[in-house]
């Protein structure tokens, strides 16, 4: 099992109303949440760890997880409200305004770390849960505690406008990167982590030298590449599809990559050492295929495994 650790929130998606103007429709979301849902739909044994509210939105989130075959027994319940993220779409690209103070997801502390069963071979971290305190310290403490026993996978999905203390965030992120086996970043993330001139492949190699065996870099329509700590690099193109919006695109790409590696039994600390260039390239291609389905329809709506069956389209 892979345990996804991070935010679950409600995306308030704009929609026209009959009286004119724009209303907002609540959709279950969050970067780590989206990846967990996508993994469950791709038949990967998946659990979810977050702070979850008992309010009506928390019930919606639990129902969405359950309907996508995600194990919610690791969620920490509270009476605090659910995080809300109001979405603005411009030419299909999403920007967000968060309402996150004193929420169930944010209000986790390191002294609440759960004991985890041996069936969990990998922990996946990312999103705003690595920025917002105190939950960011909770997730960092979990990664540090379990890194010697379980594979750590991370996609920081950096939102610079959400960061209040950059030095503190950079220190936490760097400490987690050093214990991460597979790190995925967008080209924008990579430029934020290592600002200044220099090609992306060199910057990815510099990050890999800090600890990760594999650094995956996504470049939107330009596809993705993976840089190994030994200098190996493999690439995969993006799929050409008609884009409805990009909500959840990176999250479902991650799920596709992880699902491919899981199918080969590689989502463990021992399995990490067996990932080579050809297997990684195949995983990147599968991630692109999964993400292409998501961006071809509205919202973060990852595909089910049966939607990927049949011949692989060009």
UniProtKB/TrEMBL annotation:
UniProt entry tagged with the keyword Kinase: yes
Keyword vocabulary terms for this entry: ATP-binding, Kinase, Nucleotide-binding, Transferase
Chain ranges passing through the membrane: none
Xref: CDD domains: bac_FRK (cd01167)
GO MF annotations, alphabetized: ATP binding; kinase activity
PANTHER family xref list: HEXOKINASE FAMILY MEMBER, PSEUDOURIDINE KINASE-RELATED
UniProt-listed SUPFAM superfamilies: Ribokinase-like
Family: Belongs to the carbohydrate kinase PfkB family.
Protein known as: Carbohydrate kinase
Coiled-coil ranges per UniProt: none
Segments forming domain Carbohydrate kinase PfkB: 2-304
